[in-house]
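REQUEST FORM: STRUCTURE PREDICTION
Request ID: SP-0412
Submitted by: Lab K.M.
Chain count: 1
Length (residues): 245
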Amino acid sequence: MTIEVLVAPAKLTLSLRMVGIRDDGYHLVDAEMVTLDLADELEVSPPAGAEGQLTIEDRTGGLSVPGGPEDLVTRALHLVGRTADVVVRKAIPAGAGLGGGSADAAAVLRWAGFTDLVAAAGIGADVSFCLVGGRARVSGIGEVVKPLPFRDQAFTLLTPTVGCPTPDVYRRWDEMGGPLGDYGNDLEPAAMDLVPELAEWRDALGDATGRRPRLAGSGSTWFVEGEYPGDGRRIVRTVPTTVPA
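STATUS: Completed
RESULT:
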């Protein structure tokens, strides 16, 4: 049996502006995203049964990942018309705004040789960027990915023990009348209103680093640029590609 090992790097959203809403309800964004050296690992093998099986092994100690037919890996397999047994070994925490599910789906698309960014965005808004990787400006509903020159950067992440369900954050943003974020992320006010405990984690990282943390995407991870080792904090670096050398 042939087993292929895929690498699925996390993404970090450095800035996120909400610039409109389409007639179908999808939000239009203008964002800068980068690929990180934090990655899930996927093992893909021929299916033992007719439908294939998805197994998720969580190594993060954080929120659980339910899997099932709505998992983005399953949806990616359906999109490319492939069947496989897939084992996902999670290193990217769930519900953290780091694109773990999108990264896994993008890894499957790369494995299948799939490059249609518009169709990829139909799986999830961050899948198109995760398929391209590096550093890019992302617009539309996530399907427009314009590569930018790579910057070698280090960031310190602090991921709370609470998650921020992305659909709920967007819904709260709508309910609040579409507020602007003061620190480059328009979803931050909505995430803070939805999960008030985020403030404690933001303040802890800010006090430890002397810098004002920013929220990663829809949350719940806070980050600052630079290396500030410490309890519960993770140091990550940007990488220029989603494919390891």
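NOTES: The chain has two domains: 4-147, 154-239.
Reviewed by: T.R.
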